[in-house]
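#structure-requests
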Amino acid sequence: MNPTALIADDEPLLRHALVRLLAQAWPELDVIAQARNGREAVEYFEAKRPDICFLDVRMPGMSGVEAARFIGNRAQLVFVTAYDQYAVQAFEQGALDYLVKPVESVRLTATVARLKERLRLAEPGHDMAALLDQLEARLRKGSAPANLHWVRVSVGRSLRLVAVSEIDYLRSEAKYTLVAWRSGGEAREGLIRTPLKELASQIDPTQFARVHRSAIVNLRSVDHVTHGENETASIYLKGRTDVLPVSRSYLHLFRQM
């Protein structure tokens, strides 16, 4: 009989992406349930009893850690997290399996190998209650939100999952934010509903800079800066014809360029 799995994540795109990656890394694995939150994960687990549960740490209502308390040693548990490296140490020190969003195929392959071995040996779980207590304590200690790693962008009638590292710039567009990124070297654009001000607090400040009240640029995408009159400047981007304005308030970021 093939091994079975449950996936719990409140983001449908990430749920479906993990299903696709698992189909490639472990074709024999049957994903028999997909839950949108911890409560559903527990309900599906009790009804279907999968061998493995992939649980998003942060979900509305019941979290993945809370769901894991109900499941305990009755399944192999793998946490999926968008937490930063400090919090990831909580998983490593707690001897719990984890995957960092967005899930990479190489990392998933290593996790699959460990899971296969545990199932083959019918290896019992660790003292799950104690491990989860340690995990929650460390996550609370390092509970500052992680930088955003991806955004869901509307392109026409489709929805794309875009890595933040691929974004060239963000610009306010009425009630939306325009996202300009590149995929396979090709310049692309789409819209999201999240306000620019909110995005500014979620992206890596060492990589992105506010250059205007309506624009944020990826510093790695800047080709050159031309200084203008009245303490203003214009940013020219690599591989794009777009030109971004730099207002007086942010000109100090480019004094030496």
